[in-house]
Amino acid sequence: MVKTKVSLLFALVLFSCSRAPEISWRLVPMDGHRAGAKSVNKDNVRQALGYFEDSTYVSPKGERLCTGSAIAKAAKVMIGVQDSLASLKVVIGHSDSMLLNLRTEPDLPLGNLVADALRSYASGYFKLPMDFAVINFGGIRVPMPKGEITIEDISSMFPFKNYICHVRMKGSELTSLLDTLAASKAFQAVSGATVRVKDHKVESALIGGKPINPSRIYNLATIDFLLDGGDRINIGALAQKVTLSTVLVKDVMLSYVRSCEAEGKMVSGRADGRVIME
After folding, report:
1. Which residues of 15-45 are buried (b: 16+ CB within 10 A; e: fewer)?
2. Strand 132-135 relative to strand 56-58: parallel, antiparallel, unpaired?
3. What value does the mean pLDDT take over residues 104-112?
4. 171 near 238, Cβ under 8 Å?
5. pLDDT band at 26 (very low <50, low <70, confident <90, very high)
6. In sequence order, what are the beta bridge partners of 51?
7. Which of 59, 133, 214, 267 could form a disulfide with 50 if both were Cys (CB 3.0 to 4.6 A apart)?
8. How far apart are CA 183 and CA 140, in angstroms?
9. Which residues pair with 206 in a beta bridge?
């Protein structure tokens, strides 16, 4: 009887350990009313988070608190990590507006921007013009901020280790992929395609402005997460050939933002009707 209980307990522990934790992201306004703390950057740590003087914590409001107080303890942690975070707070570009990521709408400036950047980067990296690109909205975790864009902003947008890849696919299989995307809640972020969907079924689809040729081989840029069931999309099963890379989506966007800054351009996205769902 004892052995049975031990075995059952061991099995339950294994089951619980095998389940991946459920993690979600959401943007929360900073509330620093108790101490007067403000949003911090690499140049305003003392003003934003306060400072320690002898055995006293001086808050941004100017209030002096003992180091054993809850606010002082939290401030000590926040101030203590700023040196290690400084390299992430370097400004690498500028955006003309905040770009949101609403997963219920397929044709959004941010998704379009990321998909276009992915297709352009992959074309250069794999030395082949990419006909089409797709990336899941779930991989873009926070909005693109208006104004200064830091490395931290891009790292927060793309926290996952999603690597870009090149997929060769017949037109008939590409049509099947579009059917899968159409059956989902809000398609996904795409580039190179113009698609009209009604009642979650593809009514029309163009790649590069032309109807899909069922026998032609198309070059797709995507991420490894979508190759084998990520977000219920299995691009690998439709592929004739897959070429992986060691480049993260985060690196693609860092490169894109830096290139815009070098050219004196603002980072900007727009809705253009590439996917219409009715």
Report:
1. eeeeeeeeeeeeeeeeebeebebeebbbeeb
2. unpaired
3. 87
4. no
5. low
6. 58
7. 59
8. 21
9. 194, 211
Q: What is the token pair recorded at 1?
A: 């009887």
Kindly tell me if the per-residue pLDDT of 20 is higher than 80. Answer: no
Residues 162 and 135: their CA atoms lie apart, in Å, by 10
Tokens 């690998």 locate to 236
Handedness of CA 256, 260, 266, 268 (dihedral sign): negative
All structural domains of the chain with their residue ranges:
45-89, 92-277
- Token pair for 63: 């209030």
Residue with tokens 């949003």: 39
Residues linked to residue 248 through DSSP beta bridges, in sequence order: 163
The verdict on pTM exceeding 0.85 is no
Sign of CA dihedral 96, 98, 99, 104: negative
Sheet with 132-135: list strands edge to edge.
Answer: 189-191, 132-135, 217-223, 163-170, 241-248
CATH number of 92-277: 3.90.780.10
Alpha carbon distance 220, 222 (integer Å)? 6
